[in-house]
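Spend some time on the protein that follows and explain the fold to me:
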Amino acid sequence: MSTSAKSLLSTDARKGRETRGDARRALLLQTTLRLIGEQGIAAVNHRSVAKAADVPLGSTTYWFGSRQEMLTEALREFVRVENDTLEFRLSGIAEEGMPTDELVDAFAAHLASQLGEDRWRTVAQYTLMQEAIRDPELEAICREWSEAWTQALTPLFERLGAADPELESGTFLALLDGLLINQLATPDPDAEERLLRPALEAWFTRFEEPEADRRHP
């Protein structure tokens, strides 16, 4: 076998190992997030993550030197996935002419999914955001996530005629956070009709009024 052929096979093998390694790391991070979402942050350690992921303990210690690194990288992975899918989830929302009721429907559906099938991810997100209060590295990751959402929402509020679309976007994001945290802490089976939709309607119907008459709900 020629030297070039051997080199090519070696490169392919290395890429294969890297791909498998990346997949293993992603599995460990998703498992960490699920443990946080379902059992709380105290449940996370190298052994518990390895057991939940059904991998050898050495896999977790290989990828993460400490429990704190595991938590930090789990939040970073969460934000990466969120940011990668953000454009898709918001596609069409900023389109010209989308009526208020459709905007309310779109964001109500988003909140419902966060509180339903994706509830464990939402719990993990806000649990790690709470840790960011005392951890500058986690705070920086949360800031990145918030800025990505703010930038993604700004075209919507430009289209709606907000005086300061970026400020409006950031404030609206805070509203979404508040609604989600409220329903995680004090769940109401009728929240969509009793709280979520009324809050969204109050927010968006303001833009049907002259700018001088608008007030935050």
Q: What stands out?
A: Residues 71-211 form a domain with the Tetracycline Repressor; domain 2 fold (CATH 1.10.357.10). The chain has a mean pLDDT of 88.
